[in-house]
């Protein structure tokens, strides 16, 4: 065997030692090696996709056009100022071919229509991933060295948010997520700085705790801290998962730290208002005052009914002391100067009735099992330590504890956080969106010492929030400033003078918007003085009857005195005027019957206004727009004329379509509408 | 030979996967599947549908059946939790549906077996809206649905009953599938009268921009029932 081996070995040596043979062999090897490069190129993934694409389009009706558009080889979009080098179109060959919309298999599908051109922004700005890569795994899934994998489709709206900081029509998740960041007070602890330098502000308006003992009991605070949602399902306060002892200590500290304030409480006697008639009177007053426009209550079916501007009142009697409630209803600004609740000017008898009714909304089970021992000094001190540790003062005003700065991690660039900096839970998907969603869902699972509270969000709410967080990227700070579209910020407009005080007192800006400041529940009043006639405004404030019968949120009656109403209407008629036209440029009456008749015909035939408005209640039915039965006594003629000409120019939010009405037609319609001064169209006949 | 082994392993692997679902055994059988709620929802690509899909199994008397098996299947990319389930005490089965990554119409198939082991099924359409359709949906919610949707809610009362000429529901494919893109654009832009239709439909060309009008049409096409098939392009399978 050995000899045999030796023999073959020597023969190989003999073979190789011949320089010609050696040269031949090496040449062959070299040639083979040289073929590797073109072969690797020929068998590359993208070439295979391009061949498949050509096969796919061959049998289509528009094959010639598609073939003419097709370019082989590596395709690249290069936009230096955005830092974009995208070769995605090398495989996604048909991405710009609108006619391929029916193709379902990737990578050949056409991109669905969006407002941007592919050549202006490229692909990775929205989809993330590695644009320069030419294999699927590198382009879509690479996580090495801080590279971003592709963004899952369900969070794609986050990419719009890198430039668009205002709400967009096509991005409901992003809009909702941003609203939630403000509404649930996320941004009270976590700073979020936008590329334009502004910071996000909370809209949750948490109550001050400086004199909380005037308002509620230690038992209620304890039960509330333990589980806010069991008191009110719509609560924006999260659950901090406190132990019994910790909740007890914090409640002890808050009560001990509270300083009583004169005017926080009134003498309220339950005995004088316990009868059944009073209770129904309370319900009537609650309804008449339209409390439900802002406050929700749970009905028998368990559904919340009412607005969400103020707190839910289903069990409020369990929370507040009746004496405090009555003082609050008399003037809420005494307890909380920044409250959105208006002062209603109820009589003492009405206050008694309403207090009895509202205080009767109780859930005795909520505090039934809470039995707290009187607090010791050590407990109070421990409670204070916890209040500081958990950053309660980030949201609430607490005597002796300043609002902490940078309490929680800054989230301004959270959407670009590298994966290597994240610690994942065992078994969870290793991606940034999954991390963010899980962190919101169960924050304490990521470490026992974390202080982040737990919200009870639904899956879709978590998706919305994650979308909003993913929009805070590094890229949004490096994009050219001319691409950034900032959100419209509220102005700090406040009405001036005596009327201003009155408007602050009944908190007009909680619901109405004036000069860019205020709520959006009710109509914008910036140009109310041009719009309405003063006598109508005065009557309306005296007894606000709704103009739109289908609305459930309505203007309450504030029981203003005659002189208060005069001050208010004078101010509004003088100050809130549009610069677009002169209010009195058209008369309130005296139009020729011919013109009125022409207007009537235009109203009913050409413009078919009766589909949405009622002029004659006996025949018209439409109720999408306000009833126009007495519009001639409500609106100014010039306002009607200009509104008809271009509704959106005067009220950008209105759904009344701009019908491009000619001056003559608008004049005739105005004349017809101005004759509608009393109900049933008597004025017109 | 190695290839053959790999092939057989792959085949057996497939078999194994197919054999996985019958971990549940039906305790009862029905003859029909009905949708309780959650069909024809508008979701977004890659996301869970806003409402769960609730199905009910009925017997031939129309009574609900408890303990019957319900399975869901759908196009690639669609995920269900759970994939199959036994009906509860009310004869109902509740599924969470996560849509695929592409926008468009998705047809899910719910199936169950009757007493003879024969499979019966029901097709359930769901919709995933892309950017354009989402814009259309928002415009629809603000402007169109007040008249075009006859269903009233406490938040938004429908104007449908007040109109002398009744508008069509946007999902009414029998009507809308026969109106071309150009004609729809004209009706929305210039009003119903421009196309010799109801003058109660006002013109929106000076209120909505082009993209919004395109969006509304894309939305109408998406939710159309029967489904809309775009004319023109001939697509043969090769």
Summarize it.
With 685 residues, chain A is an all-alpha fold.
Please provide a written account of the structure.
The complex is a heterodimer of chains A (685) and B (238). By secondary structure, chain A is mainly alpha-helical. The radius of gyration of chain A is 35 Å and the shape is flat. In chain A, helix 25 crosses helix 26. Chain A folds into five domains: 41 residues; 106 residues, no CATH class; 169 residues, Cytochrome Bc1 Complex, Chain D, domain 2 (Orthogonal Bundle), CATH 1.10.760; 79 residues, Cytochrome c-like domain (Cytochrome Bc1 Complex, Chain D, domain 2, Orthogonal Bundle); 99 residues, Cytochrome Bc1 Complex, Chain D, domain 2 (Orthogonal Bundle), CATH 1.10.760. The longest helix of chain A is centred in the first third of the chain and has 24 residues. In chain A, strands 1-2 form a two-stranded antiparallel ribbon. Chain A has a two-stranded antiparallel sheet with strand order 3-4. Chain B is α+β, with helices and mostly antiparallel strands. Chain B has two domains: 106 residues, Immunoglobulin-like (Sandwich), CATH 2.60.40.10; 93 residues, Cytochrome c-like domain (Cytochrome Bc1 Complex, Chain D, domain 2, Orthogonal Bundle), CATH 1.10.760.10. In chain B, 27% of the residues lie in helices and 22% in strands. Chain B is built from five helices and nine strands; from the N terminus they run H-E-E-E-E-E-E-E-E-E-H-H-H-H. A five-stranded mixed β-sheet of chain B has the order 2-9-8-4-6, with no helix packed on it. Chain B has a four-stranded antiparallel β-sheet with strand order 1-3-7-5, with no helix packed on it. In chain B, a hairpin with a 5-residue loop joins strand 8 and strand 9. Chain B is elongated, with a radius of gyration of 22 Å. Chains A and B meet through helix 3 and helix 21 of A and helix 2 and helix 5 of B.
